[in-house]
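Tokens for chain A. Residues wanted.
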């Protein structure tokens, strides 16, 4: 692996609440070990009220890291500077310190983009995407769709006002579907951007409603894949859960911090 930059952070943290379940420490420590970088990566459980103080302290010590649920949007407002992509999404999942000031980025977009385009196996030009959910993960998916020529997305979530507000933010590519069936009609790619299936065998959409040619990205992951992904595969659809996206966003974050590629194989091995 390439050596780390001189300014590379010595301490990395994951801020979230809760964070105990996160696989990020395992994958990032594996990437650090593989690159022989002497830096720590630890998960820190921070409640919303303590986020601003925690980030101030991290900035003062030149730290870097990741932000996870539920702080990604709040963290964006606490950065001194955002990359254009983080500003577009309105959420930060990766940050670092430059001259004592926090810089926020969003690598969920690139992580999703890489995994989705590899899954569909062709250029995403003119792709029709159905997005289930209207939170931060859905916003990252739409920011990726904006990069794809002539691609369009239909968003559906259980809260109409939130669906419409997200569609309005991405009005160049997205519309708010009133009914789930409207979002799914003609969809080449169906994305679960809700937590459905995270803790149990609930599914976001019956697979019988999906076109046979559709591909499925479930941003949720759990041991043995989510039931939705297993059902989609059993029906012959191309489907992946959220693990490849987790690895890819983590690898992109690693490169932001150290200016070197992350060892994705080592990251995968750490969670297998
Ligand atoms: P969020 O901002 O809280 O948004 C969640 C969305 O899901 C909202 O539209 C919410 O609707 C909807 N929702 C929540 N519970 C639901 C339920 N029981 N039934 C139907 N809809 C429900 O969360 P987020 O940041 O977008 O993250 C969503 C999920 O994506 C996370 O749980 C995580 O598993 C996954 N994710 C994975 C990765 C990865 O690397 N693989 C990265 C980012 C996110 P309401 O507005 O009505 O509550």
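Reply:
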């Amino acid at each position: 692996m390439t050596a780390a930059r001189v300014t590379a952070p010595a301490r990395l943290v994951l801020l979230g609440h809760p964070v105990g379940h996160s696989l990020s420490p395992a994958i990032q420590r594996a990437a650090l070990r593989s690159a022989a970088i002497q830096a720590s990566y630890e998960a820190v459980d921070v409640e919303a009220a303590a986020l601003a103080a925690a980030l101030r302290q991290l900035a003062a010590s030149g730290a870097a890291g990741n932000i996870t649920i539920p702080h990604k949007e709040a963290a964006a407002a606490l950065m001194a500077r955002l990359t254009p992509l983080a500003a577009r999404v309105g959420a930060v999942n990766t940050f670092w310190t430059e001259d004592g000031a926090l810089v926020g980025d969003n690598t969920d977009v690139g992580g999703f983009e890489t995994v989705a385009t590899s899954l569909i196996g062709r250029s995403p030009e003119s792709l029709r995407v159905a997005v289930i959910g209207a939170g931060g993960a859905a916003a990252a998916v739409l920011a990726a769709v904006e990069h794809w020529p002539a691609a369009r997305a239909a968003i559906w979530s259980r809260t109409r006002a939130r669906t419409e507000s997200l569609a309005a933010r991405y009005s160049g590519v997205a519309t708010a579907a009133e009914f789930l069936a409207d979002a799914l009609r003609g969809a080449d790619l169906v994305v679960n951007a809700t937590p459905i299936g995270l803790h149990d065998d609930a599914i976001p959409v019956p697979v019988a409603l999906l076109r046979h040619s559709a591909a499925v990205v479930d941003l949720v992951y759990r041991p043995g894949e989510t039931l939705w992904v297993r059902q989609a595969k059993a029906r012959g659809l191309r489907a992946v859960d959220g693990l490849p996206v987790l690895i890819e966003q983590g690898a992109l974050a690693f490169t932001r911090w150290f200016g070197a590629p992350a060892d994705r194989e080592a990251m995968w091995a750490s969670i297998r």
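The two ends are 22 Å apart (CA to CA). Residues 1-6 have pLDDT under 50 and may be disordered.
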